[in-house]
Amino acid sequence: MGADDPRLNTAGNIDFRIQRTIAAWKKEDPPPRRVKPVPISVIRHIAYLSQQSNPTNTQYQAIADMIIIAFFFLLRPGEYVDNNTESTPFRLEDVQLFIGDTRLSLTDAPILQLQQARFASLTFTTQKNGVRGEVIGLACSGDPFICPVKAIIRRVSYLRANNAPPDTPLARLFNTRSRVTAASISQVLRDAVEFLGPSTLGFLPSDVSARCLRAAGATALLLARVDTDIISLIGRWRSDEMLRYLHIQAYPLMRDYSRRMLNAGDYSMIPNQLVPLH
Q: Is the dihedral of CA 256, 257, 261, 264 positive or negative?
């Protein structure tokens, strides 16, 4: 009716308060397309390439380790990448390593002693949906490389070799312009899916991203016949607030899950019509 648009400021742009409100709404909305959980064969392929890669290719080795950690700990991208100010990744000071009941010093223990650790934990500080101070831990999977404990040991050893301070994200790289970002994680996962074959896996490379590792870990637990309430606890899903009164820090509860995830995490998916035939 000739009145000024109330959404606009004096410069003719959408008011920043409205912009932030809309941005917050978008974050609350579910993604328009659900990512597919990757089976352990995808992670195994990435781990193999990491082992065969040039030792100077620290980015790929870090990506492989963070993929392994994210899979077993059911992490969101913001918890395991190192790419933007909105991320709240786990840091070196959030890690604990154990040999039996003995907690190792990440700064003083010899590297050979760190490599003997059989249990690792992450402590929640500012991570989304995590209770501050809560600890989630996993034991060795039984695989010499695809193991949450071994992957954390490799990251700790790398960070310590570069004199990283305690508040350094686990995914941080040094002496390179490369970074472990959500985009780089997504690309490595898509390359692996492309190599293994969409027709074999049952989904396309475009169906996976850095967000899929949380779903992948949960799916592996589900296929290992782990109770859904336990999966909700490990993944910090708040489908029922009652679950917050249960504690996932108990060692007997967590000590066997990484091995069971490794054994049960290999599967294929029913393809849709977009997946090419053999």
A: positive
- 153 neighbors 170 (Cβ within 8 angstroms): no
- Provide DSSP, 42-84: HHHHHHHHHHHS-TT-HHHHHHHHHHHHHHHHT--HHHH----
All structural domains of the chain, each given as residue ranges with its CATH number in brackets, are: 38-264 (1.10.443.10)
CA 106, 48, 79 angle in degrees (round to 5)?
45
32 near 25, Cβ under 8 Å?
no
9 strand-pairing partners: none
What is the token pair recorded at 235? Answer: 């993944």
For residue range 180-232, what is the model confidence (pLDDT) as tens digits?
999 999 999 999 999 999 988 888 999 999 999 988 998 888 888 888 888 88
Burial 201-215 (b: 16+ CB within 10 A, else e): bbbbbebbbbbbbbb
What angle is formed at CA 88 by the lines to CA 208 and CA 174, rounded to 5 degrees? 85
Q: 211 phi and psi, to 5 degrees?
A: -75, -15
Contacts of 205 (CB under 8 A, 6+ apart): 189, 190, 191, 193, 194, 198
Fill in the DSSP letter of residue 244.
G
Strand-pairing partners, residue 169, are 91
The answer to whether 49 and 60 are in contact (CB under 8 A) is: yes
**pLDDT tens digits along 38-77:** 999 999 999 999 999 888 889 999 999 999 999 999 998 9
Q: List Cα–Cα distances, 83 to 87, 105, 169, 222, 242, in angstroms.
A: 7, 28, 10, 31, 34
pTM comes to 0.78
- In sequence order, which ranges of the chain are alpha helices (DSSP H)? 16-28, 40-52, 58-73, 77-80, 111-114, 148-161, 182-196, 198-201, 212-223, 228-235, 251-254, 257-264
